[in-house]
Amino acid sequence: MKQLISAEEIQSAVGKLGLQLAADYQGCPLTVLGVLTGSIVFLADLIRTIEMPLNVGLLQASSYHGRSTTSGELTINADLLPEIAGRDVLLVDDILDTGKTMQSLVETLQGHSPKSVRSAALLWKEERTVTDIQPDYHCFKIPNEFVVGYGMDFDGQYRHLPAVSALDDAELKPLS
Ligand code: IMP
Ligand code: MG
User: Fold this and answer.
1) Is 97 among the residues known to form the active site?
2) Taking the model in full, what pTM does it have?
């Protein structure tokens, strides 16, 4: 496993993003929505750096099993979604890869009549993005490598690691 971004670098970038968001959304009724499960660590850190009143909610998107991030239908579960009509919504995810997840989520949320929807991703694999969507906010661009830690998993493992690391090919075999 090769560390790409240290815990300190992450905390510093998340703090800067929080300041930017507080400035951009000043006086607006903001709802921050985390995408389960990969965003949980980023969401928890980010919301504590946004110094303004806000609501927090969750929704679930699953398309990815093990290594693959593109195969299969995306399933969106909005059962946990709070009321967002008339509110500014910030969708928070761990990583924007092809962009398909974020694009579908934005489309789903538009059906709930929010005032606005923007996206924030900790990581952006820009060279893999195939949709028109770009994250409105991101902390780091990374190359096309499979990464784990800071909420991100491989086969359900590694989410608790405080840094972001790339797995090598030998580590990308299913764990069991
Ligand atoms: P997209 O729809 O291709 O943009 O995929 C985004 C989702 O795939 C993210 O929410 C992650 O859950 C997952 N994903 C993409 N790349 C990685 C990775 O390198 N490590 C872990 N999860 C990833
Ligand atoms: Mg995800």
Assistant:
1) yes
2) 0.94
